[in-house]
Automatic annotation (TrEMBL):
Keywords carried by this UniProt record: Lyase
Protein known as: 2-C-methyl-D-erythritol 2,4-cyclodiphosphate synthase
Gene3D superfamilies assigned: 2-C-methyl-D-erythritol 2,4-cyclodiphosphate synthase
Taxonomic classification: Bacteria, Bacillati, Bacillota, Bacilli, Bacillales
Top enzyme class: lyase
Length: 31
């Protein structure tokens, strides 16, 4: 599930972090 590619991960993470595991995975892949 790649949300960073076509989704505002920044807004989601800043507004309300998704599943801990999901958010961490995105952060590691995106950032």
């Amino acid at each position: 599930m790649r949300i960073g590619q076509g989704f505002d991960v920044h807004q989601l993470v800043e507004g309300r972090p998704l599943i801990l595991g999901e958010s961490q995975s995105l952060m590691k892949k995106d950032y």
